[in-house]
Amino acid sequence: MKNNELPDNYVTALRIPWLTSIYDPIVRWTTRESRVKGELIDKAKLGADMTVLDLASGTGTLAIIIKRKFPDVDVVGVDGDPRILQIAKAKSESANVKIEFDQGLATQLPYADSSYDRVFSTLFFHHLGHSDKARAFAEIFRVLKPGGQLHVADWGKPTNFLMRLLFYPIQWLDGFANTKDNVEGQLPNIIQHSGFNDVQIDKQFSTVFGTLTLYRALKDE
Ligand SMILES: C[S@@+](CC[C@H](N)C(=O)[O-])C[C@H]1O[C@@H](n2cnc3c(N)ncnc32)[C@H](O)[C@@H]1O
Q1: Residue 12 domain-assigned (yes or no)
Q2: Which residues line ligand 1 (CB under 6 A)?
Q3: Half-sphere exposure of 19 (CA within 13 A, CB side)
Q4: Is the backbone of residue 16 left (phi > 0), alpha (psi -120 to 50) or beta?
Q5: In whole angstroms, what is the distance from residue 66 CA to residue 76 CA?
Q6: Share of the chain residues as helix, strand and coil, in percent rounded to the nearest 5
Q7: Å from CA of 154 to ligand 1 middle
Q8: Which residues does the UniProt record annotate as the domain Methyltransferase (predicted)?
């Protein structure tokens, strides 16, 4: 992939590239962001000197929260979109935290096997079709150390009819094919088929765009 070339099926943060610049306020107001991201981080039980990857880091919000809360943790963000990486780098500089942001695709992560203690990913997997989801989870499994954990927050199976209705705008924006596994509650199965053990749903949040679900999984020692 050349620096500013994205694959044809690549779905940017808000599908329409110019919306990227107003991404942060939209996510803050619609996804209960600080609560959801805060609980996801708490569940990962981070400790000093761990190495952490934020996959599809977007504007860097999660990576910055982690680094502020755990200054001794080594935090890396990776995203395919060079434009959003520029926003993330500028945000981390203003927040005065040292985070490495790399360009790379989830289906071909630019890291060696067994590099990370934890991999996080928020609001991302519904951007990928079924086979790319499976490839991305296999890549996460590869770059995690034995005993490492995956922590994901993404749209999940709606908990009621209202949550189902509210999810239609996201499906329209990011694609009905890409969001199908999410709405059918298939993410845990795909994660398990990638080699992970102990795949769990930690929590479900009702939001104005449907049910946001926290998943966790373990790579055995
Ligand atoms: C909805 S945004 C989520 C950003 C951030 N994680 C958050 O919680 O705000 C989805 C992100 O996934 C990135 N993305 C989409 N497809 C990707 C792929 N195949 N590999 C890496 N990043 C990808 C987009 O560039 C975008 O930054």
Answers
A1: no
A2: 10-13, 27, 56-58, 61-62, 79-81, 84, 105-107, 122-124, 127
A3: 10
A4: beta
A5: 10
A6: 40, 25, 35
A7: 11
A8: 52-148
pLDDT digits (tens, 9 = 90+) for 115-149: 999 999 999 999 999 999 999 999 999 999 999 99
In tens, the pLDDT along 32-73 reads: 999 999 999 999 999 999 999 999 999 999 999 999 999 999
Closest C-alpha to 95, from 56, 53, 66, 125: 66
What whole-number distance in Å separates Cα of residue 132 and Cα of residue 59? 22
CATH number at residue 167: 3.40.50.150
Q: How far apart are CA 218 and CA 197, in angstroms?
A: 5
Angle at 1 between CA 65 and CA 87, to 5 degrees: 30
Domain around 170: 32-218
- Residue 1 tokens read as 């992939």
Q: How far apart are CA 176 and CA 125, in angstroms?
A: 13
What's the pLDDT score for residue 11? Answer: 86
Q: How far is the centre of ligand 1, averaged over its atoms, from the C-alpha of 79 (Å)?
A: 6
Domain assignment present for 64: yes
Q: In the chain, how many domains are there?
A: 1
Query: Is residue 129 assigned to a domain?
Result: yes
Give the torsion through C-alpha atoms of 130, 134, 156, 30, to 10 deg: -90
DSSP code of 15?
S
Paired tokens of 220: 């055995």
CA distance 115 to 148: 10
